[in-house]
Please model this.
Amino acid sequence: MPAIQPQMETITLEQYEALPEEKRAEVFDGVVYDMASPSQIHQTISMELSNIIYNYIKSKKGSCQLFSAPFDVKLSDKPLTIVQPDIMVICDRDKLDGKRCNGAPDFIIEIVSPGNPEDDYIRKLYYYRNYGVREYWIVDPRRKTITVNYFERNMLNIQYSFDSTIKVNIYDDLLINFSDIAELLNM
Model:
């Protein structure tokens, strides 16, 4: 007789919203997963990338908006799936309700935490691709790599090093020079 697997308890949107405000968590298929606080390197990379993307959108008078964690993205109601990407660009303002983004952002960047790299490389890759994110980057400070996934063109797991200049595929002319960011981090 096969062993019976214990069922993980799932939560509703109301239960998620009732979690303590200081609790950093994401929900995948109704199951809550705690998130670690970001490191100094993580925050530096996040701020630099956010500034570059924000300034680009502003200079082009673009309609997209940039958000950074913690900001909820509800990918699904049933089962409940809520993520807090490190950086996201949302071009469809109808997805924004004042509390969160309801549906997939156009562009997401996750910065890998040393404690759970499989979260960004496996779990989030799966969810982001299947729920309609157009482009997903994984920035890994420990490995000094950027992995680009441009789902619209089926470009998956394209690897770059921190000395690369990388095109943001959802835009015609946005290039990000990672060597400038690496220099700030003394990498």
User: Anything to note?
Assistant: The longest helix spans residues 40-59. The chain is about 25% helix and 30% strand. The longest strand covers residues 155-161.
